[in-house]
């Protein structure tokens, strides 16, 4: 199975002409990565340098094992928020403990990704439906914004949720550091303006540069505005993030939550970029690439990462042709870590809060929610459920709510399968739904009923009641009730028992049950349950055409038998009359 791991797959067919665009794209990716690399660790209470580590090594890991030439990996606001919630469940006394725990989670997420990729479990990427994912990410964005109150005001906030942190801020209004507030909201406005003006230089990078220059010029630290401070001037060393004090249960469950959200949101973004850039995205191969990126991050004191929207967008816009741009970005960030410490040291904390607020606002998909409302009110309700989870009960519990909402959504869709009676349309081949096609007419004596959905334990009672209701509306001369099973992909033992009972119920109404177009797996289940034997092989058909032909043939045979019986009866009566006449003559 390990032979399935791709190595340098993104460099296959590399051309010398790609070096220049890759080098330019790599510099641009590094430039846009700097603000998020420094800001995002604050969401999970991690040191700023950990964000830089998590922006360097994952790029190398993905370049070696990732399948895509153009996707970029890195820190993600939603993933960081889930990570923060997971870390909050662990007994971590110091900042160093948090770093070890985050690295252990990255390693575990990476192992989950690789195993899932090798087992071809990329389909799990679709487990969170788009409405619930849009709602969940929007809820996460609101949580991120609320989480920046402390960085923007200088007031320590301990409450969670949506309204309690605001109430706590009101109670501590006397502690608000107004210069920090003024700086933070000024930079938020500046970010929004740059975004609206479509600045050729990434807006977060401009804000970081302006904030550093202003901090050095006006001595923000002397004014009481918090700054990043000194960062280690060393590259992280290779080490296994093993700590016996880490709770295994919380580690595994937390890694599963991080993995589900990071891969779910990451693959959605990857596919949207793939559609825009006209390249294929293989979810299973991406799992292996993301696994390598997360393992590399965990081995070098980093935290979990996923496909980065901002970095991928920059890479595509500048014209990156391969993962060489990712390697260039990694080298650039390494040089920054080693040689640009003096500039980063005076970066004001409110600037990081402003960058995170702007990033969170970009995650708040109002247009997507509006579209979901327009398309389906029910799906909009589930989007609101997904949004409410992270806000009301925390991001980690919000993941559980999002998954539960997805299961509930699937169950509601499957609990009441649609059905339709079918008939012929004069001059046209095939069969058509009677309620949709005006020209379609039923076949006299034969009812063809299509059930559009699986027959499983939680919906068989509804389906049975519905089919009996349909049977009561059929004309009096109807003799066969044939179930079109072309849409039945799954049938369980409860459904097999229900079909046996349905056969008896229909027989009491003078109807014979038949099944047409039954798939292989449902056929095996029904055969083992004895349902096929009870219905009879002669009433199981390959398709509807065979069912119609069999019905007409047997109806014709029955008609001939009836005529023959009538003829015999007529002949018998004639003979009886002749015998009576002869007897009378003898008398």
From TrEMBL:
<dbReference type="InterPro" id="IPR001902">
    <property type="entry name" value="SLC26A/SulP_fam"/>
</dbReference>
<feature type="transmembrane region" description="Helical">
    <location>
        <begin position="285"/>
        <end position="303"/>
    </location>
</feature>
<feature type="transmembrane region" description="Helical">
    <location>
        <begin position="169"/>
        <end position="193"/>
    </location>
</feature>
<feature type="transmembrane region" description="Helical">
    <location>
        <begin position="131"/>
        <end position="149"/>
    </location>
</feature>
<feature type="transmembrane region" description="Helical">
    <location>
        <begin position="46"/>
        <end position="65"/>
    </location>
</feature>
<feature type="domain" description="STAS">
    <location>
        <begin position="436"/>
        <end position="551"/>
    </location>
</feature>
<feature type="transmembrane region" description="Helical">
    <location>
        <begin position="380"/>
        <end position="412"/>
    </location>
</feature>
<dbReference type="InterPro" id="IPR002645">
    <property type="entry name" value="STAS_dom"/>
</dbReference>
<feature type="transmembrane region" description="Helical">
    <location>
        <begin position="99"/>
        <end position="119"/>
    </location>
</feature>
<protein>
    <submittedName>
        <fullName>Sulfate transporter</fullName>
    </submittedName>
</protein>
<keyword id="KW-0812">Transmembrane</keyword>
<keyword id="KW-0472">Membrane</keyword>
<feature type="transmembrane region" description="Helical">
    <location>
        <begin position="21"/>
        <end position="40"/>
    </location>
</feature>
<feature type="transmembrane region" description="Helical">
    <location>
        <begin position="323"/>
        <end position="340"/>
    </location>
</feature>
<dbReference type="InterPro" id="IPR011547">
    <property type="entry name" value="SLC26A/SulP_dom"/>
</dbReference>
<dbReference type="Pfam" id="PF00916">
    <property type="entry name" value="Sulfate_transp"/>
</dbReference>
<dbReference type="Pfam" id="PF01740">
    <property type="entry name" value="STAS"/>
</dbReference>
<feature type="transmembrane region" description="Helical">
    <location>
        <begin position="77"/>
        <end position="93"/>
    </location>
</feature>
<feature type="transmembrane region" description="Helical">
    <location>
        <begin position="205"/>
        <end position="231"/>
    </location>
</feature>
<keyword id="KW-1133">Transmembrane helix</keyword>
<dbReference type="InterPro" id="IPR036513">
    <property type="entry name" value="STAS_dom_sf"/>
</dbReference>
<feature type="transmembrane region" description="Helical">
    <location>
        <begin position="251"/>
        <end position="273"/>
    </location>
</feature>
<feature type="transmembrane region" description="Helical">
    <location>
        <begin position="347"/>
        <end position="368"/>
    </location>
</feature>
